[in-house]
Amino acid sequence: MSRTDDIDPLYPFLEEWEQQQAEPMPVFAKKRGRGRRSQETEDRRQKDKMTEFDRIICGDCLTVMREMPGESVDLIVTSPPYNLFDESEGKRWGGGFLSRGRKLKNAYKGYADNIPRAEYVGWQRDCLTEMMRLIADTGAIFYNHKWRVSNGLQQDQSPIVSGFPVRQIIIWHRTGGVNFNDSYFLPNYEVIYMIAKPDFRLRPKANHLGCVWRIHQEMNNEHPCPFPVELPERIIGSTDAQVILDPFVGSGTTAVAAKQLNRRYVGIDVSPDYCEMAEARLSGTLGGKTFFERREVNE
User: Fold this and answer.
1) Domain-wise residue ranges, the chain
2) The model's pTM
């Protein structure tokens, strides 16, 4: 029986993904003159080489992910650039955005964050497609993004996630924010799409955390749009995942959370500055109390 036989037909992406999985990866292509055992040994050697863990990779996330073997990670926790400076729809999202008292202008080092909306959506869908290929059958993607108001109307991110198996939307109540527009209330939340494969399950009692998480913003980080360590810590600690990937690792927050929880990690970022920042944070990571350890104490 196919793994997608019991999946709602509203998710045609999984059927396409299933077909793609049946095609051999180029790196595993069988060579003439090799026996089955020697080919399996070569496949394992190549896979081990491609999945070196506990490292930060500086490069384009799509390029790097396409070089990784399928089903080589257990969980993906990530937050892509939000395309804040896109003017393709006549509005510059970042125009009034402040970060700790200064304008978020040319914020990301190594990335302009201003591609046309349609191109951005296509790029993110390509990224999610690769992420789906990389996670195991028991895996999931936790994809943090933000909804906005465009031309007086709510704009969610359904064009990006449509067709992917979104199982749940978690609300991250950020307890802060800035809004200079008097036509709507301050948006002090972001969303986390749980995009899960059929066999993904939470750890026992982790479902009691609910789907609205009140977590303060990260204020002591030179990255312009970091999320707090508690966010990926809560996600990773709610699962049995052992290998965690963040293809937009930024300052390394997901990797730091994974390390604190004694999990393996792979982080990817296009900016050499942020890769260096992530490495520095990881080298200084201490075994402080995690969210779950603090929770046990309070209970």
Assistant:
1) 12-298
2) 0.73
